[in-house]
Here is the input.
Amino acid sequence: MNLHFIAIGGSAMHSLALALSTREGTRVTGSDDAIFEPSRSHLAAAGLLPEAEGWFPDRIHAALDAVVLGMHARKNNPELLRAQELGIPVYSYPEFVQKACEAQTRVVVGGSHGKTTTTSMLLHVLQYWDRLPDYLVGAQVPGLAASVRLQGQGDWAVFEGDEYLASPLDPRPKFHLYKAHIGLITGMAWDHVNVFESQESYSDAFRGFLASMEPGGTLLYFEEDEDLAALVLADTSPLRKIPYRVPQHRHDGTQWYWITSMGEVPMSVMGRHNLANAEGARWLAQEMGVQEADFYEAIASFQGAQRRLERLAQSPRRDVYLDFAHAPSKVAATTAAFSESFGSRPVWGLLELHTFSSLNPAFLPGYAGSLQGLDRALVLFDPDAVAHKNLPPLAPEAVLAAFGPGVEVFTDAMALKELIERESPDELNLLIMSSGNLGGWDVRSWALEFV
Here is the structure.
């Protein structure tokens, strides 16, 4: 099969291209107008890096079996127009993945928060017992060679399902296109306001997910999310529906324990939200034939996925963690877990507002109280990023008013870095939450020096 990727440099797109390039009989090419690290190095190592950046219609030819279209491309992309002219099938990323795994039982994990960690936990357990299926996950997971594996073999395929749009040509949420046999929804807190203008339109994406599932399938859902529970209970799709909750647990100030019928399981991850994620993964593993005792044995060694409460550096006096949290529900859950997990040692938290939603004045009130529990709460945003996204100007005073008292707001990443270095106590646990690049601040290297 000959495949061409338009916008091959994206995080998900380049991972899919790499996975497919290892399949026997498959040839992969691609184009993009800008390719950044780590995609650039990964593609180069596999011999897939385009010779030049840009769009080249002559790369689209009749010998291609399909074109995979990334979200970064536009409807008037010259390569896309050429493919349409030649009648070559054009697929979105999720549409192609579903087609590649059409004969397998598809497990899809969706939700506004926790989907990456829940998927990673499930894959960790399956890998532990040498039962790793085809999969797609949105982060690097310790023990897994890549974030995508599509060998087209075996009975199962596990996908992290995103509610964002599939492609410039297809406005359906991505997770609709996987046509899940088994689905799990971790929560439903409004996000992506540039696409979903209201809570109701966001909820419609999840109603659509239920409708997209294979008839007779199984849906697991986090019933402590009242809006999600009400949506599921009102749904009439022919599905088997199973609720789950945060499981029984205890916390001794530094260590979290899952209390099970088979004894206590010491967890290597922190927080109620991660216990909920683990409970969801347990139900999925059970649906896939993993015995309960085997699940508990494996989950105890799960260290977390990249940028999900990932420890960057540690010393006897300081720890630095990095998390991808950016939406209010994610920030609140991550902050709560972090602030509860280190005994009496001071905890500081830094949140970068970077996404379209988080920089939107209409969305900001959702962050009220989300940084509670921190001894010092620091919020960073870049006014240039606001202008680049064509959003109304955002004043630091507006950010402060939205988050509430006790929060400090900064617009210069380097000034914030210097403040942390200058004013940090000798003993400190620091949480950095960002889905951006912190104004070019290389926190991975910095953390090693800071501790």
Summary: The mean pLDDT is 94. DSSP finds 14 helices and 22 strands in the chain. The chain has three domains: 2-88, 96-299, 310-450. The first strand starts at residue 2 and ends at 6.
